[in-house]
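Practice problem: predict the structure.
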Amino acid sequence: MSLVAPERLKLARHTSIPFRDEFFDTVVTRFSLHYLDKEELKETYKEVARVLKPNGDFIAVARHPLVDLMAKPTKDYYKEEDTQVKLYGQINVICPSHIMRDYLSPLIQLFDLVDFEEGIDQADIVPKSRFKIPTYLAFKATKR
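Answer:
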């Protein structure tokens, strides 16, 4: 049994959601924001705000910036560097690195931050790290 008929599914970029203004009560994204560069992230937030109804909720989970730090050759938190991640343990994907400001500063321009969490996903393994760091960040924000 499918929750949504396949003919109703739409594939689109974060920055161009194919629905009218104020269409959704809630928008959810899981582990996809970290694949966007800073400008795409800002545009995504604008697009989510466009398709959300007033007081609608935006819920997101993304890779934590400290995971980016551990993957960077320079180990410089503030330096913008592409990092390589293994998707499903098999596929190499290049991702832009982020700092926490990249996620939160453009968000609070359009939304009220309701909840924020940093945590460790037990499925994530930071190879041979002596540090115990959060592997994801999650937030719930409400459109103003």
